[in-house]
Amino acid sequence: MRSIDLSGKVALVTGSSQGLGLATATELHNAGASVVLNYFPDSAGVNQGLAEAAAKQLGERAIALPADVRDRGSLNVLFQNIVDRFQKIDIVVNNAAIIRDRTIRKMTDDEWSDVIDTNLTGVYNVCKVAQEKLAQNGRIVSMVSISGVIGFYGQANYSSAKAGVIALTKVLSKELAPRGITVNAVAPGVVLTEMGKTIPNEVRDQMLVNIPLKRFGEPSEIASVILFLCSDLASYVTGQTIHVNGGWWG
Predict the structure, then answer these.
(1) What are 67-99's pLDDT values in tens digits?
(2) What is the pLDDT of residues 102-114, one digit of tens each?
(3) Cα gap 145→210, rounded to integer Å
(4) Cα(109)–Cα(185) distance, rounded to whole angstroms?
């Protein structure tokens, strides 16, 4: 049986100070990759503290670096710092995302724009910069969501953004194929990370009815699929959205 060995690879995971991003960075690191834990530089320094603590816990081959995915200039600095430190970059995982749930009747323009700017334009920005820096046969994996496929009540902004990333994934897989770069997406169902835990209990109970496996996902179960897509085992997989949702299809 072939095992996954990412020794010598350099991976960036955006928004990886906690939750699915941190689980993914940990999985890639455990497989031998050098990992960059990216965090949004909030004024209170909370994300920095979390990311630096996580990098320290991972130990060798892990560093924490700031960048706002909405800001192309910030990303240019991030990618240049990675190349300066590691001389290359092989893997980019787009994980940074926010939620501002509200029905469209109550949703403000700012709530719409904030989510689209981070969850869709942010992924475009990262890919725009990454495609110039990625090594031959590199990997791009974007975190999307079941919400971007079936749509959730009160998530017009979030569902639209994630659906947009699914479409972007298909386009980039064609554009970057000549360089051997694969571009895929992973669409989790509900995972009880910090973000998932904001879902009210009564809503969670309703969701469980739709899940044949009768449980929510674990961060490691999502991260392991991303690990596969980043490996040589997935060298002929591109332009795909892999659904990891316990069998939930609405």
Answers:
(1) 999 999 999 999 999 999 999 999 999 999 999
(2) 999 999 999 999 9
(3) 15
(4) 27
Is-contact 230 11, C-beta < 8 A? yes
Alpha-carbon distance of 162 to 215, in angstroms, equals 23
Neighbours of 32 (CB within 10 A): 13
Q: Are the C-beta atoms of residues 32 and 5 closer than 8 Å to each other?
A: yes
- Residue 139 parent element (H or E): strand 139-143
3-state DSSP assignment of residue 241 = strand
d(CA 93, CA 75): 14
Residue located via tokens 């996902």:
217
Q: Which CATH class is domain 10-244?
A: alpha beta
77 vs 16: CA distance, rounded Å: 18
Asked if 216 and 250 touch (Cβ cutoff 8 Å), the reply is no
Sign of torsion over alpha carbons 69, 95, 171, 238: positive
Q: Percent of the chain having pLDDT more than 70? A: 98
> What residues does each domain of the chain span?
10-244
Spatial distance between the Cα atoms of 36 and 106, rounded to a whole number of angstroms: 38
Please identify every residue annotated as catalytic: 158
Q: Token digits for 128? A: 């725009």
Query: Could you tell me the two tokens for 20?
Result: 């699915």
Q: Are strands 34-39 and 10-13 parallel, antiparallel or unpaired?
A: parallel
pTM of structure: 0.95
3-state secondary structure of 34: strand
List 66's β-bridge partners, or say none. 39
Give the β-pairing of 91-94 and 241-244: unpaired
